[in-house]
Write a structure and sequence with these properties.
The chain is an alpha+beta fold and about 100 residues long. About 45% of the residues lie in helices and about 15% in strands. Helix 2 links the parallel strand 1 and strand 2.
Length: about 100
């Protein structure tokens, strides 16, 4: 619901701010003791489906990783705390940079 309201707000004719894309935050949880398992606590694929249906690029998924929450609370980027985070953030960042460079 927040994503829908956000996209609609930015696309409003009085606002007209381009939407770079959709990122599905807290997409799944993988416990340390079961590294091959993914638990989709909040459902699966909703952000990707919404993006496709509304002409918005889907930029990626970020799982629930405690260091992201801890870094946010402490004002420190999670990539500086936990090397696992980069594998999710980097492809999204590259897509955003590519869009900015293309639309210049």
């Amino acid at each position: 619901a927040d994503v829908v309201r956000g996209v609609e707000m930015f696309r409003n004719e009085n606002v007209r701010i381009p939407v770079a894309g959709i990122i599905e935050n807290m997409a799944w949880f993988t416990p340390a003791e079961l590294p091959e398992n993914r638990y989709y606590i909040f459902g699966r694929g909703g952000a990707r489906k919404y993006a496709a249906e509304n002409g918005v690029d889907f930029l990626g998924e970020i799982p629930l990783i405690q260091s992201i929450m801890e870094g946010s609370e402490e004002g420190r980027p999670a990539t500086g705390i936990d090397p696992r985070v980069e594998e999710y953030y980097r492809p999204i960042a590259e897509k955003v940079v590519g869009k900015v460079m293309k639309n210049g």
